[in-house]
Amino acid sequence: MSPPKKKKKTTQGWVVDSGRRHAEQQGEPPKRILVITDIGRDMDDTLCFLSLLHYISLGQAELVGVVAAGGTSNQRAAVARGWLRKFGYKDEQVPVMGGRSVGKPGWFSPEGFPTPEHAALSPGDGSDFLLDCARKYKGDLTLLVIAPFSPIADALDKDEHGDLKKIHAIYVQGQAIITEEGKLVPDPQSFNISQDLESATRVFEALEEQVPFRLLGKHTAYAIKLQHEHFNLWQAQLADYNSTQTHKIDLLAVAKHNMDIFRTENPEKFYPLYKVPEDKRNDEDWFGNVGEISVPYDALALLFLMDPGLFDPTQHAHHLIVGGTPGAHGLVDVETTKRTLVEIIRISCQQLIPDVPSSRA
User: Fold this and answer.
1) Residue 91 CA: distances (Å) to CA of 48, 249, 350
2) Angle CA(267)–CA(176)–CA(73) in degrees, nearest 5?
3) Hey, which of 42, 43, 60, 158 has its CA 20 to 30 A from 225?
């Protein structure tokens, strides 16, 4: 469902052109999106949610629900609920629940966000809800998968009438391998896929003939890296919001905590990836010396769904693929895409609201 209407904000410069592209779709109903997320581990899930708020506020997207996947899924679901409350949603407007917990358990919840006991989470593991949405919306439902595939695989086990084969599309942050027989096989080099490769493989095998997959790979994300300056820009937009709050939103702090999960779990991979100088690879100095704060995999997967004109995908059967091979980012113009994403998040930071009365558990 859509959140309460907010007063429209005006923008300047090149963003108006982006708005004009979106306006061409005004005669169409909003895209109904169910998000499967492992928010709380990496900053890119949070940036994806902030970007989604922009398209919802334009009337171009409708969020029908959120299923959290990965390890400690209920804690991740509570983080998602915390952001939805800040977006203006009442708890009863959008179902949020944890899926089967598979994958690394590390997560971070910003200060003041609800615990699972106080997040009004729907019961169940998410698979029943996913299947209900497939039956209800059929070809109007799009899945945005920015987490392990566990909830979809579990829904397949219960899908006696093939309802999942009728959904519009599955957008995935991750890569696939094309076999000699022309089949798509999930690539375990993608983190989300690797966390539950068995489920990802089952979903691809069961659905790829009927459902178009839209895959955004890591090589697209590597072309769009976000630094301290971008987070400082977004934080400045939160000044009015934070002035009213006991628990303030500090996006850099959220990013640091998210990144620190990766850093402490796998420093050998983290430090070279984020280009931290060797003499700064310690608990005190690392964050001020990272080459970038976020590689926005998940936010770009959303842009692939909502603003496809920014991308130059490769077609395979009825599937579209970008960023699946080294040296091929699949973007029409890197700087335009980066500016679009930065501005979308900046606008969304202006749209957070202090609190929403609701029937909270």
Assistant:
1) 20, 20, 21
2) 55
3) 60
